[in-house]
Every structure is written in structure tokens, then in C-alpha cells.
UniProtKB/TrEMBL annotation:
Pfam families: ABC_tran, BCA_ABC_TP_C. It comes from the Bacteria. CDD domains: ABC_Mj1267_LivG_branched. Signal peptide: none annotated. This is ABC transporter ATP-binding protein. Residues 21-269 form the ABC transporter domain. It comes from Actinomadura rugatobispora. GO terms for molecular function: ATP binding. InterPro entries: AAA+_ATPase, ABC_AA/LPS_Transport, ABC_transporter-like_ATP-bd, BCA_ABC_TP_C, P-loop_NTPase.
Length: 279
């Protein structure tokens, strides 16, 4: 297979509900620092797009604007034609955009199942309060959501951990719980910020396989921030490379890996984009 051939999942994954995500000349300034400088990228429906770049390049900032946590200084973000830049995070989630965080953000004392139920909160009609009050409609609805939580847990391979407090699970499993929680929102596009960071080789391969299944089985679009170039080359249809807030390259993984500007940006990072602390 040539390095630029489309991934076999691409055709299967084309999903009528997966909207196009268009980021157009997005700029974000913090006091004195331009974290994103007129960055544009498009995530095609049902595709897996990777956003890569050395430490501090602006990848998480980009996610934070897409999900409504940070405000853009200028530029636009459109999901299926809807402008997102002025919307609050819960409105963006309601449009079908879910995300995971670079640092695990689970409720450590709650069971895995309850963490996943929180992920479904926007989908509940009666809210879990009425379930707590033992209203029949609420109880039925809660059961329906618990069933779906179990299905998603099985899909992601964490069903045996449903009753365990999330904080007691090994790190690699917690990363999977985060993925499952984002899927519990029934998203049409999923943003994953370093889903295999801190994992060992076997866990990385297993997570890559899961992401392929998510994409093929659920027909989502995925935007992935990742340092691991092998993982990106294995999974992504398109790659956008940031360096110091600017887009320095974009295209299929094989072409991007050969791009001289990308090679230059990754020099001195040990090839994995992680700049040493001392520089
Ligand atoms: N809330 C903030 N206030 C001020 N500066 C910020 C804020 N968030 C991010 N930055 C700065 O913006 C730049 C981009 O940071 P960002 O976290 O987006 O990088 P990144 O590409 O995700 O890096 P990493 O690979 O280390 O996760 C950095 O210089 C960072 O210090
Ligand atoms: Mg980051």
C-alpha cells in the first residue's frame, strides 16, 4: 500500500451525521503571546485529522477554543455550518462535539459507571434529580442510560471496571474511561488531546485499534492531538502541523513527515515533539 493511500476505514466511516469542521484563520492571543496565529484546518466528515507540533505549539489552545473553553481573538470555527466561536461549552457539546483532556479529568471517587453517566448528562430529559426522587419516568430513563453506558464501556473494553472508583484504575485504563465518557455524549465529532500520552507500547497499540473501531463503528469525525508520529502515521488521513502558533504544514501523514519545515521544527525534540524542559 502506498503511504498516501486512504485508510480502509475511510469509506465505511463516511457518516451522514458527521459534520464538517472548518477552522478559518483562528487567532488566539494571551497577554503578549500569540498562541494561535491565523490557523486554518478542515476536518472532513468521517475522517481522522491529526493536529501535531512541538510543546507549546498551540494544540491544546486550539482544542480549548473549539470546545468553547477559550475565546478566539479573531477567526471562525464552523461545525456543519454553525459558528461556534461565541457559544458556551455546553452549547457546543449539544451540537455533538465531545472532547477529552490532556490531563485526566475524571471524578476519582466516583465509579467508572457514574463518570460515564455524567458524560450523558446533556442527553437526559428528566435529569438525574428525578431519578433520585424515584419518579417512574426518571427511573426508566436512568435504566436506558445505564444500558447505553454498559454498551459503550464494552465497546471501549472497560466493562470489567464499571463498578470501580475511577481514581483506583491504572493510568492506561483511566485514559480509556475518558474516551468512553466522551463517547457517552453520542458525539458527531470527537476531539482527543493526547489519548496515548504516558502509555506503554502495548497500550498505545491497543488504543490505536480502539480509535479505528470508534471511527469505523460509530462513523465519527476525529481530531487528534498526538506527539507519537508512528501513531499519527498509522491513523490519520490528514495532518496539520503547528509550531509556535503557526501552521507550518498540512497534508497526508507521509508527505508531512518529509516536509523540511516539519523536520526542522522537530529537531531538538528527540523526534517526538517534546521539547526538553531546559530549553
Ligand atoms: N490560559 C493561558 N494563558 C496564557 N498562556 C497560555 C494559556 N494557555 C496556553 N498558553 C500558552 O500558549 C502556548 C500554547 O500552549 P498550548 O498548551 O496550546 O500548547 P500545546 O501545543 O498543547 O503544547 P503541549 O504539547 O506541551 O501540550 C504556550 O506558550 C502556553 O504557555
Ligand atoms: Mg497540549
Amino acid at each position: 500500500m502506498s503511504a498516501t493511500a486512504p485508510h480502509p476505514e475511510a469509506a465505511e466511516a463516511a457518516h451522514p451525521d458527521a459534520p464538517e469542521l472548518v477552522v478559518d484563520r483562528l487567532t488566539v492571543r494571551f497577554a503578549g503571546l500569540t498562541a494561535l496565529d491565523e490557523v486554518s484546518l478542515t476536518v472532513a466528515p468521517g475522517s481522522l485529522h491529526a493536529l501535531i507540533g512541538p510543546n507549546g505549539a498551540g494544540k491544546s489552545t486550539c482544542f480549548n477554543v473549539l470546545s468553547g473553553v477559550y475565546r478566539a481573538t479573531s477567526g471562525s470555527v464552523r461545525l456543519g455550518g454553525t459558528e461556534l466561536t461565541s457559544l458556551a461549552p455546553h452549547r457546543i457539546a449539544a451540537l455533538g462535539m465531545a472532547r477529552t483532556f490532556q490531563n485526566i479529568a475524571l471524578s476519582g471517587r466516583l465509579s467508572t459507571a457514574d463518570n460515564l453517566m455524567l458524560g450523558r448528562h446533556r442527553l437526559t430529559r428528566t435529569g438525574f434529580v428525578s431519578a433520585g426522587l424515584r419518579l417512574p419516568g426518571g427511573r426508566r430513563e436512568e435504566r436506558r442510560h445505564r444500558d447505553r453506558v454498559r454498551e459503550i464501556a464494552e465497546f471501549v473494553g472497560i466493562e470489567e471496571h464499571l463498578a470501580t472508583p475511577a481514581g483506583l484504575l491504572p493510568y492506561g485504563v483511566q485514559k480509556r474511561v475518558e474516551l468512553a465518557r466522551a463517547l457517552c455524549l453520542e458525539p458527531r465529532i470527537l476531539l482527543l488531546d493526547e489519548p496515548v500520552a504516558g502509555m506503554n507500547g502495548a497500550e498505545r497499540l491497543a488504543m490505536a485499534a480502539t480509535l479505528r473501531q470508534v471511527r469505523a463503528g460509530l462513523g465519527l469525525s476525529l481530531l487528534l492531538v498526538e506527539h507519537d508520529m508512528d501513531m499519527v502515521a498509522r491513523l490519520a488521513d490528514e495532518v496539520t502541523v503547528l509550531d509556535f502558533g503557526r501552521r507550518i504544514a498540512s497534508g497526508p501523514p507521509a508527505a508531512v513527515q518529509r516536509d523540511p519545515e516539519v523536520i526542522r521544527a522537530y529537531l531538538g525534540t528527540g523526534g517526538n515533539g517534546e521539547r526538553s524542559e531546559s530549553t
